[in-house]
Structures are given as C-alpha cells and as structure tokens.
Design brief:
The protein is mainly beta and 117 residues long. Helices cover 5% and strands 39% of the residues. The chain has 1 helix and 10 strands. Keywords: Metal-binding, Zinc.
C-alpha cells in the first residue's frame, strides 16, 4: 500500500508506491544534522510528485550528487533526488514529512556521514 507525505504547508506533496517503511536511517552529516531528517530511500519509479515543482527550491553542496529539495513557502524538506552510492538514481524521503508513520516505532540505523570521504 502506498504512503504519502508533504511539506508543512502542502505546496509539495508526494506518493510512494510501496508499503510504509519500518526502518529509517539517521545521518550526522552537516545538512542532515541540522535538518534532523529520518531517511528512507526508494526508486524514482515508485515516487510520484503530486504537486507542481514550482514550489520546490533546491540546494546542492559538496559533490552535488543529491538535490536537496525544500518548500519555498514553509521551508520543510520532504524529499531529495540524486545518485546513490551504487551510481543508480534514487529518491530520499524524509520520513518526518510522511503521513501516518509512527516515528517512535521505526528501527533507526545510523550513518556517519560527517566522517565519510
């Protein structure tokens, strides 16, 4: 069953055509530490943006491999798009912006992005 998410004001909304995840990843890199994201990774084929892209602002840094998207109105960062470590295209979902997911029930793994070269 698909799950949905959005930014705070709703100008960015999406659907992911897969079951809601039971696991998430927390990263301590410079942007993730500041945003507090809980990551879930999926494929572009399963991700469907349900709103126009005109409310999206994109931030690139470091290797510029990931487009960090956030809402130009409310500032929330519901998803990102880019190239994963395996070289394939991926979509990162910030589970803090997903609907009906019990964040306390997620199995959280950590990634030391602050020290990754």
């Amino acid at each position: 069953m698909a799950f949905r998410g959005s930014c705070h004001c709703g100008k960015i909304a999406y659907r992911v055509d897969e079951d809601a995840p039971a696991k998430a990843m927390a990263c301590n890199c410079s942007i993730c530490r500041r945003q507090g994201n809980l990551h879930h990774f999926t494929t572009p084929e399963k991700f469907h943006l349900e709103t126009p892209r005109d409310a999206i602002t994109t931030y690139l840094f470091n290797k510029k491999a990931i487009e960090h998207h956030f809402c130009s109105a409310c500032g929330c960062a519901p998803f990102a798009e880019g190239t994963g470590p395996d070289g394939k295209m991926m979509v990162e979902i910030n589970l803090r912006c997903a609907e009906d997911i019990d964040l306390d029930a997620l199995e959280i793994t950590t990634f030391d992005g602050a020290h990754k070269l």
